Amino acid sequence: FMQFPYKWWPDDCTGFSFIWNEEDHLVAINEFPHGPVKDGKSWLQDIFGFYTIDGDANILMGWNVGMLTREVELLSDDVVSKGCQYILNKFLGAKYNIPPPESVTRTKWYSNEHFRGSFSYRTVDSDKLNATAEDLAQPLLANNGKMTLLFAGEATHPCFYSSAHGALESGVREAQRIIDLYASPREKSCRIAIIGGGMAGLGAATTFLQAGIEDFLILEASDKLGGRVDTIYLNGNVLELGAQWLHGTSNYLHRLAEENNLIVDEASEEGVGIYVRNDGYIFEDFMVKKIDFIVGKILEECENFVDSEKYPFSVEEFLEEEFKKHLRDNPNEDKEFVEKALELYDWHYRFQVIDNSCHRLKEVSAKDWGKYSFIGTDRQKHMNLRNGYKSLVDILLKSIPEQSSLLETPVLKIDYSKAKIRLDCRGNLTILADHVIATPSIGFLKQNLLQFQPPLPDITRKTIDSLGFYGIGKIYLVFEEKWWKVDGFQLVWKRNTILGDDRDWIRYVSGFDTVFNQTNILVGWIGGDGIEKMESLCEEIVGIHCVEVLRMFLQDPSIPLPIKVIKSTWISNPWVRGAYSHTTPACDRAGCGPSTLAVPVTMDGVPKIFFAGEAVHESHFSTTHGAFESGERQAGNLLKFFRRYKL
Ligand SMILES: Cc1cc2nc3c(=O)[nH]c(=O)nc-3n(C[C@H](O)[C@H](O)[C@H](O)COP(=O)(O)OP(=O)(O)OC[C@H]3O[C@@H](n4cnc5c(N)ncnc54)[C@H](O)[C@@H]3O)c2cc1C
User: Where does the signal sequence lie (predicted)?
Assistant: First the structure.
C-alpha cells in the first residue's frame, strides 16, 4: 500500500495494470538491479498492477504474486518502496508527475510462520493423487472409532476453498459434527425415506398417499419445504427468489393451479422493453426483432439433432457457427449493421446462459437440445401465480400429514448394504427404511457430501458427474417510486467492453425487467461467471453497482438508488448449489443423462434408491412440474414393485 502526499491520478481512474514486452525484461534488471530474479525476470514483473482503494483517497495498492513473492517478503521496505516507484515511473512517468510515497505498508503472509502463504488451490498433483478437499475434511478417529481430530479451514471446503465464506462454512460444518457426536442418538424407522422436500419429494409423497401408503418420512435439510420454490412477500405482493413461472399445461401442477384459481390472466414475457447499449444507443425495433428471429430459428434447427447420428459438439458451436454463416451469407449488410448484429447476438448468448443455468453454452449438449418439451400456447409459456409459487406448495402440503416430514434434518450417509437401509442424519438421528427416494439437486450431489455405502453404481455416479448444473441469480431493486416508462431494459454492450473494476460481474446481467404485480420494482437476471461475485457482495453494493450501470446505459445520472435490494443466493445455498440442470457434451460422450439417473439402485435384486428431481426428467428437466412428475414416477415405480411382489 503506497500512501502518497496527494492523489496524482485522475478521479475516474481505478488503477493501472502493467503489461511488459520482451525487451524490457533485461532493461528492468539493469535499471533496478535490487531484489530477486528468476528465469531472466525481475521480481518487479510480478507486480501486476496498482489500484485505488475505496475510501482511501491517496493510497494505491499493488499486488505481488508468483514464484518470487516469498523472497520479496525478505527485502527491506526501502528496496520494495524504491522498486515500486521505479515501475510506476517506468510505466506512467511520462504522463504523470509522481511524487515519492510518504509511506509503504506491505503484507508478509509467507514469512508469517502461522500462515506461510495466502490460501490453497488445487494442483496437478492433487488431481493425479485423486486427493480432494473432502479427504482433508475427514476426521481422524481414535482406536475406539471416536472422532478425535477434525479439520476445518478454507482448504477443506469442496467448492469455496480460498474464500472467507468457505472457511466460515467449514468451521460450521465441523462444529456441527461435534454437536451431532454428543447429541443423544435417536432412531426412527419408516417404510420409505424421501430425501428432500422440494417438488420431487412432494410429488413422491402425494403419490404414496394416493395409493394409501402413509408410512414414509420426508427428510428435509433446510428449515422449510418447497426447495427451489421460494416465495417472499413485499408490499402485500409476492416476489419469487426461485421458480418464477408455470411453463405449460398438461401436468399435475398446472391442473392443481387451475382448480384452485391460482393462475392470473397476465402472462409474462422475457426480453421485453428497450434494447439499450452502454453508450446510450437504443436499438431499432426492427433490428431487435430480426436478430431475435435469426437466433430463434437457429436454436429451433438445433432441436433436430435429437434424432441424428451426427451432431455438433455443443449448442455454442452450432449457434455461433450458424450465426456467423448468416452474416457471411448476407454480404450486403454494412459494417455498422454487422457490428450491431454481433452486439445483439452477445445479448442472446447471455440470455441463453441464464435460461439454461450454465457457465457457457459450450457446456450444453446440442444433441439433447430438442429433448426439452413444452406443451401449451405462447401465452402459457410464462404463467404467473396470483399468490406466488408457495401457494401451490401450500396446497400440496394440505394433504401431507405434518408428522410425515422432518425439517432441518440433512441426510449425511446412506448405507444400503443390508436389507434395512440406514440413513445417518445430522443430530445423531438414524432412520431405518426399506427404500429411499433421493431428490437432492445435481449441484448438491456433485459435491459428494452425501456418502453412499456401497458407492453408487458407476453409471449413476457418471451421470451425476456429467450432467451440467449451475446458477441463475435474481436481483430485485426496490425503488421509492417507479421512474421508468418502458417494460424493461435489456443491456447490450459494445463488444469487448470491460469495466475493469469491481462491477465486472454486471456484464453477465441480461437486463432489468418489470415485475408482475409490483409497480416500483425492477428485477435483474444474472448467470454465468458473474453470479458468484454477485452472491458474495452485500445488497447495498449490488444495488449501487446496478444503478451505476443503469445510469451509464440510460445516460441519466438522476436515476435514484434503490431503497431496498433483495437478491437470490442459490449457488451459496449448501443444499442446492445452483438453479437447475442441463445435459452436456460429457453426457453425449458417456451415453448418460436423466434416463440413466432414473434407473433405481438395487441391492440383491431389490430396488433400494430411486433418484428423482428435475434433473431426472427426460423432457421437463429444469422445471417444477418436471421435478414433481419425476417424484410421482419414481414413487409409481416403487408401487409397481410392491404390487408385483404383493408387498
Ligand atoms: C432462480 C430460479 C428460477 C427458476 N425458475 C423456474 C421457473 O420459472 N419455472 C419452473 O418450472 N422452474 C423454475 N426453476 C426450477 C425449479 O425451481 C426446480 O426445477 C424445482 O423446484 C426443483 O425441484 P426438486 O424437487 O427437483 O429439487 P429441490 O427443489 O432442490 O428440492 C430438493 C430438496 O432436497 C433438500 N436436500 C438437499 N440435500 C439434502 C440432504 N442431504 N438431506 C436432506 N435434504 C436435502 C434441499 O434442501 C431441497 O429442499 C427455477 C429455479 C431457480 C433456482
Answer: none
Determine contact, residues 83/125, Cβ cutoff 8 Å: no
pLDDT average per 10 residues of sequence, the chain (647 residues)? 96 93 88 93 93 90 91 94 96 96 94 94 91 91 89 93 94 92 91 98 98 98 97 93 96 97 94 97 97 98 94 98 94 88 98 98 97 92 95 97 96 96 94 98 94 97 98 98 97 90 93 96 97 94 97 98 97 96 97 98 97 98 98 98 94
Q: How far is the CA of 582 from the centre of ligand 1 (A)?
A: 14
Q: What pLDDT does 519 receive?
A: 95
Are 98 and 39 within one domain? yes
Claim to verify: residue 397 and residue 321 sit in the same structural domain: no
Ligand 1 touching residue 623 (CB < 6 A): yes
Which residue minimizes the CA distance to atom 53 of ligand 1?
A: 579
CB of 195 within 6 A of ligand 1: the answer is yes
Q: What's the DSSP call for residue 419?
A: S
> Residue 22's pLDDT is what?
86
- Buried b / exposed e along 136-174 (16+ C-beta atoms within 10 A): bbeeeeeeeeeeeebebbbbbbbbbbeeeebbebbeebb
Cα-to-chain-centroid distance, residue 386: 28
Which parts of 19-140 fold into alpha helices (H)? 24-31, 69-74, 77-92, 124-128, 133-136
What distances in angstroms separate CA 112 from CA 10, 117, 118, 598, one per listed residue?
A: 36, 8, 10, 52
Q: Are residues 154 and 213 in the same domain?
A: no
Residues 8, 87 share a domain = yes
Give the number of other CB atoms < 10 A from CB of residue 573: 21
pLDDT at 54: 83
Quote the CA–CA distance of 436 and 608 in Å, as a whole number: 6
Closest approach atom of ligand 1 to CA 570: 53
pLDDT of residue 379: 86
Phi, psi of 644 (to 5 degrees): -60, -40
Asked if residue 247 has its Cβ within 6 Å of ligand 1, the reply is yes
Q: Is 0.95 exceeded by the ipTM?
A: yes
Q: Distances from the Cα of 602 to the Cαs of 421, 434, 454, 456, in angstroms? A: 11, 12, 11, 10
The closest-lying atom of ligand 1 relative to the alpha carbon of residue 241 is 1
Domain assignment of residue 30, yes or no? yes
User: The domain spanning residue 455 has which CATH number?
Assistant: 3.50.50.60
Alpha carbon of 620 to ligand 1 centroid (Å)? 13
Q: Is residue 240 included in any domain, yes or no?
A: no
Specify whether 552 is located in the same domain as 624: no
Protein residue closest via CA to atom 1 of ligand 1: 242
Domain range for 514: 269-372+473-567
Nearest-10 Cα torsion for 139, 145, 147, 150: -20
Query: Can you tell me which atom of ligand 1 is nearest the CA of 622?
Result: 19
- What's the confidence (pLDDT) of residue 583? 98
Length reported for the chain: 647
Cell of residue 233, nine digits: 412477500
